[in-house]
Amino acid sequence: MVIAERKPIEEIRAMLDGHKRVLLLGCQECVTVCMAGGSKEVALLASALRMVEPDKEFMESTVERQCEREYLEEARGAAEGCDLILSMGCGAGAGFASDIIEGIQVVPALNTKSIGVVDEPGSWVERCMACGECMLHLTGGLCPIALCSKSLLNGPCGGSQGGMCEVDQENVKCGWQLIHDRLKSLGREDLLEEIRPPKDWSAAHDGGPRRVVREDAMA
Amino acid sequence: MSENNGYKSGSRLERILAAGQFAVTAELGPPKSVDVAVIEKKAGHLKNKVDAVNITDNQTAVVRISSIAAGVLALQHGLEPVIQMTCRDRNRIAMQSDILGAYALGARNLLCLTGDHQSFGNHPTARHVFDLDSIQLIQMVRIMRDEGKFLCGDEIRNSKKESVVEPRLFIGAAANPFGDPFEYRVIRLAKAGADFIQTQCIYDMPRFKEWMKQVVDRGLHEKLYILAGLTPLKSARMATYMRDSVAGLTVPDEYIERMEKAENGAEEGIQICIEQIQELRQVEGVAGIHLMAIEWEHRVPEIMERAGLLPRPQVN
Question: Of A113, A144, A160, which residue is a domain's last?
């Protein structure tokens, strides 16, 4: 899922400047699971803002998904009379809300961090960088682009020590140590001797904003 | 394609190693300003004392004069440069362009590195590149040299009417015998086409010998030359710093104690370094040393003299 976290309240307050009636718009998908922008977080942020911004009015609404047109169209009603929408969806949701709910500025309450998983309760970690050309079959299901701080494709750099990464030896594991250990446990060390060719980054964002089209699903 | 009397690049470093001589490379860090006198001064200490000198590429991600520009200046002062190139700051287009440029300006050795993460340097908010990793960079330089082609497959020629004129570089790589997990690194380097390896600096000699044994057992020392990295200790404080703060390094207690007990720490550090050189000369598969005397270039001649490595051999 998409992992996000809420911006500091002071940064959010700065975006409210000059506005009177603000809709806090939550999303029931990923950001609910990562506890950043679901209905609970909408209510918490709204009450915090009411305390520090007593002259402004804060409305609350949480839609099924901010990344789908029909749900955002439903939010239009809740936005009526508001002069600002504070989206608590991910970057895609906040941006799309701005397309669909015309005439009202949409600002982001969250910082979108990654495509990740719940590592343990209360801890979310990045696992995919949407490179457009998955290679998990070669690396024991652990993505070197997401898990190595330098996105190296052919083994660790010299900064791997005791299973940890030079970038943060206390908190960041060396992605290549993980891949190495996983492949060993799978009996696939042979994959560690192969050389991966330069990646085709045109399949990633470097090729421009990507669109996936399924003609059979088109109206 | 160009001829080089059977050599891949014809660099002095390659010729020394091919002749079976014990090679010595040193290191020269370019200045953090345009004060080129720094390069001239450091080059003066190293000239005729070592076979080639690594020119670092924005090491620890701190901005300095580019390794190619500083390498050309070093060449003008009589050194043979080993241009370091990291994958951190350039994509494959800029790398190939710089490789052509470096060769055109006289460079004949290229050391292909991953590069320290930008978080260590003076622009920690920079975006890094890593379009290629060091293994892919080595492969690319080899394809440019041996096949006369760019990574995309195009021939290295100015037009269809003109001939292929390819950069012929002696290709180096780095390996950390103490990094984890290290056992597949040298295999991949050899496969990718590295001609020589310089190692991370060695203090833990037993562990280095164990690593060399693995390298020799696999016959990898016959595929590429291995230069053992050494950094002379300047003081007891430096010894404990290296032990406690440098990722991937272990400094045995014996050296720490010797440095602490010594009246003259610098002298003891040089003595230890000379003993290490003598020990390394006996290790099977070690083709030479890479002497990283950080901001201590002026002590290199003394180390070389006392280790019996002067004068440097002449090769044709």
Answer: A113
A167–B188 C-beta distance less than 8 A:
no
Is A34 inside a domain boundary? yes
Q: Are residues A10 and A104 in the same domain?
A: yes
**Inter-residue contact A165 to B127 (CB < 8 Å):** no
The domain of A105 spans 2-113
Question: Which B residues, 264 through 283, put their C-beta within 8 Å of a C-beta on chain A?
Answer: none
pTM of the predicted structure, to 2 decimals? 0.95
A122 touches chain B (CB under 8 A): no
* A156 shares contact with chain B (CB less than 8 Å): yes
Beta pairing partners, A24: A60, A86
Prediction ipTM score: 0.94
Co-location of A82 and A138 in the same domain: no
| Regions of chain A with pLDDT less than 70 | none
All structural domains of chain B: 12-306 (3.20.20.220)
Residues of B within 8 A of A177 (CB-CB) are 180-181
> Domain count of chain A?
2
Q: CB distance B179–A162 less than 8 Å?
A: no
Which residues lie closer than 8 Å to B181 by C-beta, 6 or more apart?
Answer: A156, A160, A176, A177, A180, A181
Q: How many CB atoms lie within 10 A of CB B22?
A: 18
> How far is B290 from A99, CA to CA, in rounded Å?
60
Residue range A151-207, pLDDT digits in tens? 999 999 988 888 999 999 999 999 999 999 999 999 999 999 999 999 999 999 999
**Are A60 and A94 members of one domain?**
yes
Task: Report the percentage of chain B scoring pLDDT > 90.
Answer: 91
